[in-house]
Structures are given as structure tokens and as C-alpha cells.
Amino acid sequence: MSDVFAVELKNQLPDFLFNKFMLFVGKKKEERILKFRRREDAERSLIGDVLIRSIICHQFQKRNCDIAFEYNSYGKPSLKDLDHIHFNLSHSGVWVACAIDSSPIGVDVENMRTIDYSIAERFFSPTEYNDIMEKEGRERFEYFYDLWTLKESYIKARGKGLSIPLSSFSIRKNHSEITISSNREETWYFMQYNIDPEYKFSVCAQNSHFPQNLTIMHPLELGDRIPG
Ligand SMILES: CC(C)(COP(=O)(O)OP(=O)(O)OC[C@H]1O[C@@H](n2cnc3c(N)ncnc32)[C@H](O)[C@@H]1OP(=O)(O)O)[C@@H](O)C(=O)NCCC(=O)NCCS
Predict the structure, then answer these.
(1) Shortest-distance atom of ligand 1 to CA 44
(2) CATH number of this structure's domain 3-224, picked from the four choices 3.40.30.10, 3.30.450.40, 3.40.50.1820, 3.90.470.20
(3) What residue segments make up the domains of the chain, in order of their start?
């Protein structure tokens, strides 16, 4: 079964915690984090890294110094020498999310902001665009973000970024039943979590067993789970 975690960053991280967490991450990540101009972007990226480290340390009894990341040619991170563990991260607004499984998995969280539906006409499949436009008002708005995050979670599970055209597959959501049609053989499953009315939160996995609820963690808890 997969596991799904989220951390809410309501306020700026206190400096002592930011500095403590910076000691957990690798040199390259540290350099990347220091390049962010906005503190909140640096924090989200830092928390993502520390979140997956805390999960690996806690669930697999690893030491932080034994955790290293490698990246595929599209930038998807994976765990070096732990290729039986798959994970993915996402951050948007105040939320940082992490999904972990024994087979490929993708997660996407998005803060729902006013949008122009021509984006869906331009980038989504015709079926998806029609499904969106059949709805009205708030329902249409939410459905757009359902599809956006579901599509993004699928792309992230496959790990090939936007080299997979968004219109090359179609996702439909009928109540809680979510299906994908594409010309590929593998079967993918989807799950969504309602943790915040201003956000959509979607997970895509090859494994059909999702937890009913995700685990929300406080930033302070993360460091406690990372021994030396
Ligand atoms: C990079 C991409 C994988 C996700 O980008 P995103 O939605 O902006 O960002 P998210 O917060 O969800 O995910 C970022 C994390 O995904 C991971 N990631 C990076 N490249 C990845 C890839 N190819 N596949 C899966 N995960 C990836 C990293 O952990 C990254 O965290 P970091 O930036 O702190 O290192 C890519 O799909 C992209 O650029 N998407 C653009 C979004 C878009 O236009 N969507 C259209 C609507 S469907």
C-alpha cells in the first residue's frame, strides 16, 4: 500500500528550524535552496527534501547519511541504492506533499486560483475540455483543477515531465471514480484527498491500494524522525 503525507507551512519556518533542516540535505540541494529569491520557495523545496528523508529514516530504519538522490533525464528524483522505494513530491502555496510506494507513484497539489479555461482547450484532450465546459460555476472551476492535478500526478508518476503531451491521454472523474484512457498498456490508479478547500490534491500509482486518509505532519516532527 502507498503512503501519502503532507506538511502545512502556515507561517514562515523559524530560522533555527530552517538552519537545522539545511544540515540534513545534500550539498547540491543546499546550493539550490540558497538560490531561491523568495523564502517561501526555499522553504517548500527544503521541506520536501526533509519530508522524504524523515519518512525513509522512520519507515526503513535508515540513517540520513545513507540517503542520496539521483535524477532521471527529466529531473524526477529517486533514491540511490533503494530502487524498491518509489516516491514523489509536490508543493504549492502552503502545502508540501509526498507519496511513497513500492512501484511508480506521482503526486500533485495545486492551489486553486482563477483560471482561463482556454488553457484546457489548448492543452487538455477534447473529451476533457468538453467535460469541463459541460459544468458551470464552482463545479467547473473545481473540475478543471481535479483534471489538472490528476493529469500532473500521472505525468509525474511516469517521470517524463511535459514530454508527455497533456492531450495524449484523457482523464474522467465521475463522482469518486477516476479513469484514464491512453494508448498505453499499464494500468494506473488515482486517489484524491480533500485536505483544504482551496487546494486539489491528487495521487497516481500503479498500485491500487491507497490510504483512505493522508498523514499530516507538523514541520517540528520532521527533524525528530531523522537520526544523525
Ligand atoms: C516538473 C514537473 C514534473 C512538475 O512541476 P510542478 O507541478 O510545477 O511542481 P510540483 O511542485 O508538483 O513538483 C515539483 C517536484 O516534483 C519532482 N520532480 C521534478 N521533476 C520531475 C519529473 N520529471 N517527474 C516527476 N517528479 C518530478 C521534484 O521533487 C520537484 O521538487 P523540487 O522542485 O523541490 O525539486 C513538470 O510536470 C512540469 O513542469 N509541469 C508544469 C506544470 C503544468 O504546466 N501543468 C499543466 C496542467 S496539467
Answers:
(1) 34
(2) 3.90.470.20
(3) 3-224
> Looking at the DSSP assignment, which residues form a beta bridge with residue 90?
97
For the chain, 228 residues long, give each residue's pLDDT as a single digit of tens.
899 999 999 999 999 999 999 999 999 999 999 999 999 999 999 999 999 999 999 999 999 999 999 999 999 999 999 999 999 999 999 999 999 999 999 999 999 999 999 999 999 999 999 999 999 999 999 999 999 999 999 999 999 999 999 999 999 999 889 999 998 889 999 999 999 999 999 999 999 999 999 999 999 999 888 876
Which residue shows C-alpha cell 500503479? 206
Q: What are phi and psi of 46, to 5 degrees?
A: -65, -45
Distance 99 CA to ligand 1 centre (A): 14
CA–CA distance, 45 with 155 (Å, rounded to integer):
20
Whether 85 contacts 56, CB under 8 Å: yes
Cα of 107 vs centre of ligand 1, distance in Å, is: 9
Query: Atom 33, ligand 1: which residue's CA is nearest?
Result: 45
- The grid coordinates listed for 12 are 514562515
What residue owns the CA closest to ligand 1's atom 41? 162
Residue type, 192: Q
pTM of the model: 0.96
CA 156 to ligand 1 centroid distance, Å: 7
| Single-letter amino acid code for the residue at 208 | S
Q: Which residues have CB under 6 Å of ligand 1?
A: 45, 48, 74-77, 88-92, 108, 148, 151-152, 155-156, 159, 161-162, 166
